[in-house]
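My main concern about presentation is that the manuscript never shows what a single data entry looks like. The format is easy to grasp once an entry is in front of the reader. For illustration, here is how one protein appears when written out as sequence plus structure tokens:
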Amino acid sequence: MLIYFIGPGGAGKTTLAKQFSKDFGDIYYDLDEHFILKIGNISQFINIYGYKEYAIQNIELYQNLVKNIDHNLINIVVCSSGFMTYPNELTTNYREIKTDIEDHYLTFLLLPSFELEICVKEIVNRQLQRKYLNRSATSEEHKIRNRFPLYINLKCQKILTNEAPSKIAFKLYKQIFK
């Protein structure tokens, strides 16, 4: 069984996946962590090869990951923040991958709010607390403002991440396994 967590950076995807895994024993795969393990530092890769090449590599890693996981177990796949926002023509099969994820019955868009201004404020705040990102408030705000309409218009289920991860994980578990 596959469960997908999608959304912008700072939405709580990895935090919720870790909590869900801890509470219910499921396996989670974070595409960012997977990229770092298989290829290396994401920022350095983007600086050297560009964002387009990063996105292409990320799609390839995703395909290999999903192909090789045990589908008899419950697996959570945490997609990178921009994964659902790449141009459809980026690779020959990206549009199909994106559609499959969006239409999957256990795909969840995570956002701290469904209202743009509240979401922007919270995402920027969360991202700036991550010292390892070394990003500016302006660039984070620009990114979430550009991606918010793409995310909020996806057809998948939406989850607010504005309370404790343990509470969200429990509610999600009840929703999935009711």
Q: What stands out?
A: The CA atoms of residues 116 and 149 lie 9 Å apart. The mean pLDDT is 93. The two ends are 15 Å apart (CA to CA).
